[in-house]
Design a protein that fits this description.
The model has no long low-confidence stretch (mean pLDDT 95). Strands 2, 4, 5, 6, 9, 10 and 11 form a 7-stranded mixed β-sheet that branches. A hairpin with a 6-residue loop joins strand 9 and strand 10. With 122 residues, the protein is mainly β. The radius of gyration is 14 Å and the shape is globular. It has no helices and 11 strands.
């Protein structure tokens, strides 16, 4: 399984960015796709995740408290793609963002994409 992420960049505080991540390869239909972020001083942490669900648009989503109300995760199961719409960005959102897909039948099976840098200037 390969994950190809795109959409990072530099934006001013209050601005928006949209990240995309397309998965390819042998993908179990029962999975959770999500976004994590990491700074040099901190561990990689979950930003948002969404389960595959039973429809093309996926199932339930979960968010880190720090991004609730500002970020929206969505997915298109027909394209094996997950999106992260980031609004009202803050300097503390600056990090490398990583896409992840985890197999829900076997949680030990997961894959990571290469990170994409998001920088929010004040």
């Amino acid at each position: 399984v390969q994950l190809q992420a795109s959409g990072g960049g530099l934006v001013q505080a209050g601005g928006s960015l949209r990240l995309s991540c397309a998965a390819s390869g042998s993908i179990d239909t029962l999975n959770v796709m999500g976004w994590y972020r990491q700074t040099p001083a901190k561990q990689r942490v979950l930003v948002a995740a969404t389960e595959s669900g039973g429809s093309a648009s996926g199932g339930s989503a979960t968010y880190a408290d720090s991004v609730k109300g500002r970020f929206t995760i969505s997915r298109d199961n027909t394209k094996n793609t997950v999106y992260l719409q980031m609004n009202s960005l803050k300097p503390e959102d600056t990090a490398v963002y990583y896409c992840n897909i985890r197999n829900l039948r076997n949680l030990l099976i997961q894959y990571w994409g290469k990170g994409t840098q998001v920088t929010v200037s004040s």
